[in-house]
Design goal:
Low-confidence stretches of chain A: none
Order of helices and strands of chain B: HHHHHHHHHHHHHHHH
CATH architecture of chain B: Up-down Bundle
CATH class of the largest domain in chain A: Alpha Beta
Helix content of chain B: over 70%
Radius of gyration of chain B: 23 Å
Number of helices of chain B: 16
Mean pLDDT of chain B: 91
Largest interface: A-B, 66 and 70 residues
Oligomer: heterodimer
Number of domains of chain A: 2
Number of helices of chain A: 5
Shape of chain A: rod-shaped
Helix content of chain A: 40-55%
Structural class of chain B: mainly alpha
CATH class of chain B: Mainly Alpha
Strand order of the largest sheet of chain A: 2-3-1-4
CATH architecture of the largest domain in chain A: 2-Layer Sandwich
Distance between the termini of chain B: 42 Å
CATH topology of chain B: Formate dehydrogenase/DMSO reductase fold
Low-confidence stretches of chain B: 1-7
Largest sheet of chain A: 4 strands, antiparallel
C-alpha cells in the first residue's frame, strides 16, 4: 500500500484484534507490518495460498531437462567417446549432474521468484517516511488500511483504529 | 533513527546487533592473526601456481594427497550448516534458531576453502572453466561419465543454494540492522542489503513459503554432495576406495566433522558475547548428542568396511584393510584416527560432559583432526601401495602442503571474523517469533 492510514500497536495480539475488527467492518485492503510472521495474520489479511510453489516446481523441471539435455548433447550427440566399454548414452552416469541441476533450477526460482513476487528490491517506500516506523522490524506491529479500499474513509478508519487502543494512528500519502 | 527502548524484543535485537556496531579489541587481535595466516595461504598458493604443483609432496603413485584430503575435509565441514538449517527446520527442532546463522556462515566459508583445492590441483587453475559445459571452438565437452564433472556440479550447486538460503534468512535481520544502525552510512549500507524489506503481511506470507521450500531443497542436497564426492573414490577400482558403503559413510563423516566445527565456533562466541541465555546448555547438550549419534554411524561404517574387505576374500582388499592400514607405515595415523573419531565421542554418554564447554571444545578439536586423518588414511594408504610392489612409495608432504593447509584454516577464520563483525550472527526475527509463540502458549495453558 502506498497511501492510506496506518496504526501502531504494541503487541501481536493488538494487531490481530485490529485486523479482525477491520474485517468485520467490511475493510478488505488491509496490510500488516511486523518484526516476525504472526500466526493468524494471513487469514485476517485475506491472503490465499501462495502460487510460488508451482513456479518453483517448474524451475525444478526446467533444471532437470536442461541438465540432462546438456549432458546428452555434449556426450552423446556432439562428442561421443567410448569410456571403459560403457554405452555412449550412459543414463546412470548422467543422473548425479541432472539431480544437481534440478535442485539448482528450483532453488534459483524460489529465491529470485520470491523477490519478483514481492516486487523487491524497492529501497524506498512511503511507509518508511513515518516517524518511528523503523520499529516495525524490531518490536512494534503496524496495521494499514489502503486508501484504495472501497469503504475507505479517512476519518472513519482513524476513529475505528483509535478505538482499538492503537498507540498512534497516522495517515500516509503517496506524495509525501 | 534508533531510539532508546527498554522492552524485551527491542533489547534482544539491540543486544544481538551490538557486535556489528563496535568491534572489541579481542576482535581486532583475532582478525589480525587470521589475516596474517591468510597472507601465508596467498603466498603458498602464488608460489604453487608460479612454480607448478611439483612443489607439493604428491606424485605417482600418491597423486591425490593433501589437495584432495583438504577438499574432502572442508566440504565435509560445510555439511553441518545446511543440515542444521534445513533438516532441523523441517523436523521442527526449534532450538536451531539460536545457532543456524553461525552454522550457515560456517558452511559458506568452508565451501570457499574446499573449492580452492581441486582448482589448485588442476595444475593449471586458469583453465578451471573447462569443467563447465559450454560450446568451445575446440569442439570438446566435459565427459559426464567421469565423477569430476559430477563433483563440479554438486559443489557449485551446493554453494549457490547455501548462499541463497543464508541470504534469504538474513533479509529480515538486515532490515532490523538498517532500522537500528547508528549513523547514516551504515543505515544506507544495511538498507541496500535489506532490499527494502518492510515485514508486511504479504511479504512474510510468500517469504515463509519460499524459505521452507528452499530448506526442503537443501536437505537432499546435503546428502547428495558428499555422496557425489565419495563417488570420486567409489567408482574407481582401488582397494580401500571401491566400496558401495562410501556415499552414506562419507555423508555421516561430513556431518560429524561439521558439527564439531559448529561447536568449536559456538563455544567461544557464546562466552565472548555473553550469549549463555541464547545458546543455552540445551544447545550444547543437543549438539553433543548429535555428535555421539554420528560417531556411532561412523563406527558402523568402519566395521562394515573392514568386514567386507575380509569377507570379499580379495587379497588386495584384505591387504589394504587388514595389513596396510593397521600395521603399515602410516599405522600411527590410523590408530590416532580411531582414537579421535571412535573413543573421544564416547565421553558424551555423560550429561555432565555434554554440557561442559571445555570438554566439548577439546573433543571438537580432536574430532576435526580425526576426520582430517580419516581422509588421509583413505587417500594415502590406498595409493601408496598399489597392485605393483615395485611402484610403492612413502608419501611425505612438503612445507608448501602444510602452509596451504594451515593457511586455509586461517582464511576460514578470517572470513568468519568478518561475518561476526558485519552480519547479525543470530536469527533475531526467528528468535523473537519463538519467544512470542512460547509466551502465547504459556498464557493459553495458564488460562485453562
Amino acid at each position: 500500500m502506498k497511501a492510506g492510514v496506518l496504526a501502531e500497536f504494541a503487541s501481536a495480539e493488538g494487531l490481530l484484534e485490529a485486523l479482525a475488527v477491520l474485517r468485520r467492518n467490511g475493510y478488505r485492503r488491509l496490510e500488516s507490518y511486523t518484526p516476525y510472521p504472526v500466526e493468524g495474520a494471513d487469514d485476517r489479511l485475506g491472503l490465499g495460498r501462495s502460487r510460488l510453489p508451482w513456479f518453483i516446481f517448474g524451475g525444478g523441471v526446467l533444471g532437470a531437462i536442461l541438465g540432462y539435455g546438456i549432458q546428452w548433447y555434449a556426450d552423446v550427440w556432439d562428442y561421443p567417446q567410448s569410456i571403459g566399454g560403457r554405452p555412449v548414452h550412459a543414463v546412470a552416469a548422467f543422473i548425479p549432474a541432472t539431480f544437481e541441476a534440478t535442485v539448482l533450477g528450483a532453488a534459483l526460482v524460489a529465491f529470485f521468484g520470491l523477490f519478483v513476487a514481492l516486487r523487491l528490491p524497492e529501497l524506498w517506500h512511503p511507509v518508511f517516511e513515518i516517524e518511528g516506523f523503523e520499529r516495525a522490524s524490531v518490536d512494534r506491529f503496524w496495521v494499514g488500511v489502503d486508501a484504495r479500499d472501497r469503504r475507505f474513509d479517512d476519518r472513519k478508519v482513524t476513529g475505528l483504529l483509535e478505538g482499538l487502543h492503537a498507540l498512534r494512528v497516522v495517515p500516509i500519502a503517496e506524495d509525501v | 533513527m534508533a531510539t532508546a527502548v527498554s522492552s524485551g524484543p527491542a533489547q534482544l535485537t539491540d543486544r544481538l546487533l551490538a557486535p556489528a556496531w563496535t568491534p572489541s579489541r579481542v576482535w581486532w587481535v583475532l582478525f589480525g592473526i587470521s589475516g596474517a595466516g591468510t597472507l601465508v595461504l596467498a603466498g603458498a598458493v602464488a608460489y604453487t601456481v608460479a612454480t607448478g604443483i611439483g612443489v607439493w609432496g604428491n606424485n605417482i603413485p600418491v597423486a591425490w594427497a593433501y589437495a584432495i584430503i583438504n577438499f574432502v575435509w572442508w566440504i565435509g565441514i560445510g555439511h553441518a550448516g545446511t543440515f542444521i538449517s534445513a533438516f532441523l527446520l523441517l523436523f521442527h527442532q526449534r532450538w536451531r534458531s539460536s545457532i543456524n546463522r553461525v552454522a550457515e556462515a560456517m558452511t559458506l566459508f568452508a565451501l570457499v576453502n574446499a573449492g580452492l583445492f581441486p582448482l589448485l590441483h588442476l595444475g593449471r587453475p586458469w583453465f578451471f572453466y573447462w569443467l563447465i559445459p559450454y560450446p568451445t571452438r575446440m569442439g570438446v565437452w566435459p565427459q559426464f561419465k567421469s565423477a569430476l564433472p559430477w563433483d563440479a556440479a554438486a559443489v557449485a550447486t551446493y554453494f549457490t543454494v547455501s548462499l541463497l538460503f543464508w541470504y534469504l534468512g538474513l533479509v529480515p535481520d538486515l532490515a532490523a540492522a538498517r532500522d537500528r544502525a547508528p549513523g547514516r552510512t551504515r543505515r544506507r549500507v544495511y538498507g541496500v542489503f535489506a532490499l527494502g524489506w518492510r515485514g508486511s503481511g504479504r511479504q512474510w506470507h510468500q517469504y515463509r513459503v519460499a524459505y521452507l521450500i528452499l530448506a526442503g531443497l537443501a536437505a537432499p542436497l546435503v546428502i547428495s554432495v558428499h555422496s557425489i564426492v565419495s563417488l570420486d573414490f567409489a567408482i574407481s577400482q582401488l582397494p580401500g576406495w571401491h566400496s558401495t558403503i562410501f556415499p552414506p559413510y562419507f555423508v555421516v563423516g561430513a556431518i560429524y566433522s561439521g558439527f564439531a566445527m559448529v561447536l568449536l565456533l559456538l563455544i567461544p562466541i557464546r562466552r565472548a558475547f555473553q550469549l549463555e541465555d541464547i545458546i543455552t546448555e540445551r544447545h550444547l547438550d543437543n549438539m553433543a548428542k548429535l555428535l555421539l549419534a554420528m560417531a556411532w554411524m561412523l563406527i558402523y561404517s568402519y566395521v562394515v568396511e573392514t568386514f567386507m574387505a575380509w569377507y570379499s576374500g580379495n587379497v588386495y582388499e584384505r591387504y589394504t584393510y587388514l595389513v596396510e592400514r593397521p600395521f603399515g607405515p602410516y599405522a600411527w595415523i590410523f590408530w590416532g584416527m580411531l582414537t579421535a573419531n571412535v573413543v573421544v565421542p564416547q565421553l558424551f554418554w555423560w550429561r555432565r560432559l555434554r554440557v561442559s564447554p571445555p570438554v566439548l571444545f577439546a573433543a571438537s578439536l580432536l574430532i576435526l583432526a580425526g576426520m582430517w586423518t580419516e581422509r588421509f588414511i583413505i587417500i594415502v594408504t590406498s595409493l601408496n601401495r598399489g597392485f605393483l610392489p615395485s611402484s610403492w612409495h612413502f608419501y611425505v608432504p612438503t612445507w608448501v602442503d602444510w602452509s596451504i593447509l594451515f593457511g586455509s584454516v586461517a582464511f576460514f577464520f578470517f572470513l568468519f571474523f568478518l561475518f561476526l563483525r558485519f552480519v547479525p550472527m543470530v536469527a533475531i526475527s526467528e528468535l523473537k517469533q519463538q519467544r512470542h509463540e512460547a509466551s502465547t502458549a504459556a498464557a493459553a495453558v495458564a488460562a485453562r
